[in-house]
Structure formats: C-alpha cells, structure tokens
C-alpha cells in the first residue's frame, strides 16, 4: 500500500508534533510543578492564617485581661511605683499623731522582686482609737506599707508614746515596671 | 501558449492549514504562559504573605509574652498588697483585742506586742484581780505566761506579764 503524503502536509505534521511536544514538555516540567507548589502553598497559607487569627485573638484577650487588671488595681500599681517620701507620709498622717518621727533606713532587701524599705516610726497618740484609725488609713495610703512587730505602747502622762516598724514595698528600679 | 483556461493561483508559504495550526498553538501557548505567570505571581504573593504572617506571629508572640509577664507581675503585686492589708487588719484587731482584754480595774503603763508574744507592764489593786481578770484570758490565748509582781507606793502591785506563743504555731500560720 502506498501512502502518498505531500511535502507540505509532511512539514505541517512535523511542525504540529514539535509544537505538541513543546506544549507537553512545558506543561509537565514547568506548569504542573508550579501548580503543585501553588496548591501546597495555598493550603499552608490558609493554615498559617488560621494560626495567626488564633494568636491574634489570644493577644486581644490578653490585652483585655491586662487592661482590666490595670484598671482594677491602679491604686496598688501606683502605690508600688511610688518611692517612699517621709515628708509626704508625715503630712498625710499627721492628724493621727500629736508627734511623729520617721526614721527611714536603707533598703532592707529585695523580696520577691520588690525592694523593701524599713521605716521606724516614733509617735505620740492620744488614745488607742487613734492608732486603730491610723491602721485603717495605712491600707489606703499612697504606698504599700505593712506594720510590723514589735509595737510598743508606753503611757507618758496624758499621751501614749508608740514606736513601731513599717515595711514599705516598692518596685525594683531595674524590674519590668508596670507604670 | 496556455494549457489552462483558469489563471494559476498564487502559491503562499503560509497555507490556510498552517495558519489554523499556528492560531491553535498560539492560543494554547498564550494560555499556558498566562497560567504560568498567574501561578508564579501567586507563589510570590504566598511567599510574601508567609513572611508577613511569620513576622506578625512573632510580634504577637513577643507582645503576648510581655503582657503575660506584666499580668504575672501585677498579680504578684496584688497578692502581696492583699497579704499586707490583711496583716494590717489582723494587727489592728489584735491591738483592739489586747486593749479590750485589760479590765478597768487594771491600768497598763506599757505594752509590747512581739511577733511571738505580748509583754504588759501595769498596776493592779491585788493579785486576785490580776489573776482572774487578766491572767486567765491571757492564759487561754498564749502557750506560756509568766507574771511577776512588786509593790507600789500606794499599796497596789506593779506587774509584768510576759506571754508567748510557740514558734511552731506562728510558722504554721505564716
């Protein structure tokens, strides 16, 4: 059987085959790997976006918690940030005592990340009730102060002489302060 | 001399079949290239997104860690301040109770409140008043109570009352 193919058709066939091979090679070697990469990256990005959203929500929740905590305890935070000022303390609490002497001692130690000042107070009060009022007021003052033992009361005529030690807590200077 | 009645058509290198073939492959290749360009662009965009997400995640993580440490610090401040406020209130109650404990017939001249005890100096009309009205309640509060007396000029008795709690009990309370 003799198949006659014209030269022109032969050229056409060869060209078609070449172009087809080019299309196939381009598709399999370039386009399909690129498409595969695209699909993988798309899945990965969606996953990362979901993780980011979770992290963002957690961040927003934490911000809200911190904000609430700060607003609920702003007096305590400010009290820890304040440095003890004996003049100011005397001015604020002078009404409870007929005489008040404050002796500030150097920083006692660093306790749980806070610096603790020891302050000795020698005072004269008219009645024990005045001292109770002072103890009530100490919890509302500008500093975090604990009254410590020993506490001495001594009658001196019409007044009671009292001496006690106070410990003033404040933030360490180099700590991450929450001012 | 002519052999045909029709005019010979001009022969072109690009035949209609070839044109059709070219158009077909041209469109195919253009579509493939456009797809390739689209995928390349999207892969590049994903890469940029990945960098941005990683950076955002790190920023959020750093920020959250900082806020968590701030929260812990504030909670620590609140816990310490509450403990101190409670201690001050308890101290106030202790002093109130101490003064309430002393009957009217006994006069205190000095009181020392210690971490583990109470020392009272005062004057009493006699030992019985002291023993029944002050010694007894003190004995119920403290583990060890020591009293000493010496006479006053007016016939009454000066007393020194030393009262202590065991150290173990204090450390348990703390």
Verbal overview:
The complex is a heterodimer of chains A (179) and B (174). Chain A has four helices and four strands, in the order H-H-H-E-E-H-E-E. Chain A is an alpha+beta fold and 179 residues long. Chain A has a four-stranded antiparallel β-sheet. The N and C termini of chain A lie far apart (100 Å). With 174 residues, chain B is α+β, with helices and mostly antiparallel strands. Helices cover 62% and strands 18% of the residues of chain B. Chain B is built from three helices and four strands. The longest helix of chain B is centred in the middle third of the chain and has 86 residues, at 16-101. Chain B is rod-shaped, with a radius of gyration of 51 Å. Chain B starts with 15 loop residues before the first helix and ends with a helix. The interface between A and B is large, with 64 and 58 residues. Strand 3 of chain A pairs antiparallel with strand 1 (107-113) of chain B, so a sheet runs across the interface.
Strand order within the widest sheet of chain B? 1-2-4-3
Proportion of strand residues of chain A? 25-35%
Largest beta sheet of chain A: what is the strand line-up?
A: 1-2-4-3
Low-confidence stretches of chain B: none
The helicity of chain A comes to: 40-55%
Main beta-sheet annotation of chain B: 4 strands, antiparallel
Per DSSP, the total helix count of chain B is 3
Tally of domains of chain B: 2
Query: How much helix, percentage-wise, in residues of chain B?
Result: 55-70%
Summarize the structure.
Chain A has helices at 7-72, 74-81, 86-93, 128-138; strands at residues 99-111, 114-125, 144-156, 159-171.
């Amino acid at each position: 059987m003799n198949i006659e193919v014209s030269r022109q058709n032969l050229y056409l066939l060869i060209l078609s085959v070449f172009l087809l091979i080019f299309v196939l090679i381009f598709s399999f070697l370039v386009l399909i790997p690129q498409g595969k990469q695209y699909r993988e990256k798309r899945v990965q990005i969606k996953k990362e976006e979901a993780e980011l959203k979770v992290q963002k929500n957690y961040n927003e929740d934490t911000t809200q918690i911190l904000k609430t905590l700060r607003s609920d305890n702003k007096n305590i935070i400010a009290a820890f940030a304040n440095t003890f000022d004996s003049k100011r303390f005397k001015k604020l609490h002078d009404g409870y005592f007929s005489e008040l002497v404050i002796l500030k001692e150097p920083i006692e130690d660093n306790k749980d990340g806070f610096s603790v000042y020891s302050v000795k107070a020698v005072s004269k009060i008219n009645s024990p009730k005045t001292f109770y009022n002072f103890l009530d007021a100490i919890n509302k003052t500008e500093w975090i102060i604990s009254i410590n033992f020993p506490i001495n009361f001594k009658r001196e005529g019409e007044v009671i002489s009292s001496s006690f030690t106070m410990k003033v807590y404040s933030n360490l200077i180099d700590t991450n302060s929450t001012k | 001399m002519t052999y045909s009645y029709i005019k010979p058509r001009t022969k072109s290198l690009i035949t209609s079949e070839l044109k059709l073939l070219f158009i077909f492959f041209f469109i195919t290749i253009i579509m493939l290239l456009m797809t390739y360009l689209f995928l390349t662009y999207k892969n590049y965009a994903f890469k940029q997104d990945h960098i941005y997400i990683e950076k955002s995640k790190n920023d959020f993580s750093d920020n959250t860690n900082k806020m968590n440490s701030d929260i812990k610090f504030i909670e620590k401040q609140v816990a310490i301040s509450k403990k101190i406020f409670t201690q001050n209130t308890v101290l106030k109650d202790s002093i109130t109770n101490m003064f309430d404990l002393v009957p009217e017939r006994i006069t205190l001249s000095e009181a020392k409140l210690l971490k583990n005890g109470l020392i009272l100096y005062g004057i009493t009309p006699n030992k019985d008043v002291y023993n029944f009205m002050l010694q007894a309640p003190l004995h119920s509060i403290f583990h060890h109570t020591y009293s000493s007396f010496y006479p006053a000029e007016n016939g009454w008795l000066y007393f020194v009352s030393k009262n202590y709690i065991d150290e173990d009990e204090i450390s348990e309370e703390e």
